């Protein structure tokens, strides 16, 4: 039994919205469905590119997520009736913003509503789990590697009195800093294009990228993926880090040269890494990063709390509805 991959939900509206996933949170879809005709990709996996190109001609808005590439080809296929693209994500590197701007297509995204969830995963889960080697320790407990309590077995660095360096100090970077304060890091330093007044509240000091790499015990990447940040964590960068440093990335895999990271971990240029994002996603099962015991890889779950995902879905819906009515989106990307 194979269901139709496309579900049409009609109401009495002149607008049609294409939704790229069947498992978008229900409340968001419902908001759109009440006011617009909906064409839904009725699968919980991403819409294949050739289908995507075939399904968008004539739609007025696209409700998408970070796995859907919205580029010139897709916008051409959609045609002049497309007025809005709203992504259920804060990241927008999958959307050609310039091309949308050129065509007057409004772009919505979901900042703020996932900040806490993402910062929580970054600090309270990934950083702690990497430092204290939780997956390795649990595997040992399960597979017989736990022979007895042993003085230096499964030890890792503590967080108190360490220096945490945050790269990218916008909403998520700042929320990471607030949580780091609670963990009594001795110093919080950050680098970003501009000095941020919010840094004072958490006692964070702005430094140059190279100084951050050299001084940090924990280097946390919260930078958006733009051409200037692509592969900013490369061989040169890992060489500048302390040999005891732990690298955490919850932004985008594209900020990291993964080959360089793999080598840095294999040759103990740095101590460990915790990644919630990779290139590609999912990471192929035979990728060397997945076999290193000093690397934790999570499947891009930074914002995966039930509330965050629901709120993201609803904000995406409101972004579309407001744009179609000719109003400003509550979270409109303007760059
Ligand atoms: C985003 O919204 O960009 C996040 O990466 C999703 O968790």
Count every beta strand, where a strand is a DSSP E run of 2 or more residues.
Answer: 13
Quickly give the structural class. Answer: alpha/beta
CATH class of the largest domain: Alpha Beta
Q: What is the CA–CA distance across the termini?
A: 46 Å
How many helices in DSSP terms?
11
Overview of this protein structure:
- Helices cover 33% and strands 16% of the residues.
- It is built from eleven helices and 13 strands.
- The strands form two sheets. A seven-stranded parallel sheet has the order 9-8-7-10-11-12-13, with helices on both faces.
- Helix 2 packs parallel to helix 3 (72-78) and helix 5 crosses helix 7 (171-182).
- It is of the alpha/beta class.
- The protein has two domains: 6-112 and 306-324, 3-Layer(aba) Sandwich (Rossmann fold), CATH 3.40.50.720; 115-297, Rossmann fold (3-Layer(aba) Sandwich), CATH 3.40.50.720.
- Residues 66, 89-91, 114, 302-303 line the site of (2R)-2,3-dihydroxypropanoic acid.
């Amino acid at each position: 039994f194979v269901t139709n991959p496309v579900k049409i939900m009609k109401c009495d509206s002149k607008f049609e919205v294409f939704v790229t996933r069947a498992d978008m949170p229900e409340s968001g879809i419902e908001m759109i469905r009440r006011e617009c005709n909906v064409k839904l990709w009725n699968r919980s996996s991403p819409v294949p590119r050739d289908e995507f190109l075939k399904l968008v001609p004539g739609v007025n808005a696209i409700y998408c997520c970070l796995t859907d590439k919205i580029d010139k080809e897709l916008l051409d296929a959609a045609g002049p009736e497309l007025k809005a693209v709203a992504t259920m994500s804060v990241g927008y590197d999958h959307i050609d913003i310039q091309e949308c701007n050129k065509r007057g297509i409004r772009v919505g995204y979901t900042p703020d509503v996932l900040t806490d969830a993402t910062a929580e995963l970054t600090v309270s889960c990934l950083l702690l789990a990497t430092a204290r080697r939780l997956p390795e320790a649990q595997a040992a407990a399960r597979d017989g590697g736990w022979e007895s309590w042993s003085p230096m077995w499964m030890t890792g660095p503590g967080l108190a009195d360490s220096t945490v360096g945050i790269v990218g100090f916008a909403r998520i970077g700042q929320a990471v800093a607030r949580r780091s304060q609670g963990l009594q890091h001795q110093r919080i330093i950050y680098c970003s294009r501009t000095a941020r007044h919010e840094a004072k509240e958490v006692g964070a000091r702005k430094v140059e990228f190279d100084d951050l790499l050299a001084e940090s015990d924990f280097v946390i990447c919260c930078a958006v993926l733009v051409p200037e940040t692509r592969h900013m964590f490369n061989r040169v960068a890992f060489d500048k880090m302390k040999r005891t440093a732990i690298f955490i990335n919850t932004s985008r895999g594209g900020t990291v040269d993964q080959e360089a990271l793999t080598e840095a971990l294999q040759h103990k240029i740095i101590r460990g890494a915790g990644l919630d994002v990779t290139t590609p996603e999912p990471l192929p099962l035979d990728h060397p990063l997945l076999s290193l015991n000093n690397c934790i890889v999570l499947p891009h779950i930074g914002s995966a709390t039930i509330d965050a995902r629901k709120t993201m879905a609803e904000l995406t819906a409101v972004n579309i509805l407001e744009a179609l009515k000719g109003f400003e989106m509550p979270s409109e990307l303007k760059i």
